[in-house]
């Protein structure tokens, strides 16, 4: 994904810097980020997903954006159990958290493979004061 993003941003030159790095609580990106993207990762980071989302407001610049695309819910028990056995939590916990803690600009939940599961796309800004 990072390679494709670099190709898509090539015309922007030095105005865009893409960083692939472990994201964790701390001072590494304090107030420096225009965008923080979580792509199909938060449902796999249990229970630390909440800690990472709590870090986001500290790392975004004013006007910065958090974007998340991830699984939402499993609509059948067999799939929920299968994904849970692979450390993926599909219980719909992320969307309510994001809406409550960030300034929501876009939130869409869509059906996945034959409606066996759903996924979501979210874009939000720093929390409202």
Protein model, in words:
This protein is of the alpha+beta class. It has a four-stranded mixed beta sheet. A hairpin with a 5-residue loop joins strand 3 and strand 4. It is globular and about 45 Å long.
What are the SSEs and their pairings?
Layout: H1 2-9, E1 33-39, H2 49-59, E2 60-74, H3 77-85, H4 94-101, E3 103-111, E4 117-125
Parallel strand pairs: 1-2
Antiparallel strand pairs: 2-4, 3-4
Our Rg estimate from Cα atoms comes to 16 Å
N-C termini distance: 34 Å
Strand content: 25-35%
What strand line-up does the widest sheet have?
1-2-4-3
Domains counted in the coordinates: how many? 1
Content-based structural category: alpha+beta
Q: What's the CATH H-level homologous superfamily? A: Vaccinia Virus protein VP39
Order of helices and strands: HEHEHHEE
Work out the oligomeric state of the chains in this entry. Answer: single chain
- Biggest β-sheet description: 4 strands, mixed
Question: What do we call the CATH topology?
Answer: Rossmann fold
Task: Please tell me the overall pLDDT.
Answer: 93
Globular, elongated, flat, extended or rod-shaped: what is the shape? Answer: globular
Helix content: 25-40%
Which parts are unreliable, with pLDDT below 50 for 5 consecutive residues or more?
none
CATH class: Alpha Beta
Give a concise summary.
The chain is an alpha+beta fold and 129 residues long. Helices cover 28% and strands 31% of the residues.
Core attributes:
single chain; 129 residues; alpha+beta; Rossmann fold; four-stranded mixed β-sheet; 4 helices
């Amino acid at each position: 994904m990072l390679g494709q993003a670099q190709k898509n941003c090539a015309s922007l030159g030095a105005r865009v810097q893409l960083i692939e790095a472990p994201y964790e609580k701390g001072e590494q990106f304090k107030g420096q980020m225009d965008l923080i993207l979580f792509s199909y990762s938060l449902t796999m980071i249990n229970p630390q997903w909440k800690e990472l989302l709590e870090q986001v407001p500290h790392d975004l610049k004013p006007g910065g954006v958090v974007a998340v695309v991830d699984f939402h819910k499993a609509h059948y028990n067999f799939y929920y159990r299968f994904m849970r056995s692979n450390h993926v939590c599909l219980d719909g916990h992320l969307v309510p958290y994001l809406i409550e803690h960030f300034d929501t600009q876009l939130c869409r939940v869509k059906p996945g493979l034959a409606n066996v599961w759903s996924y979501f796309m979210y874009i939000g800004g720093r929390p409202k004061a």
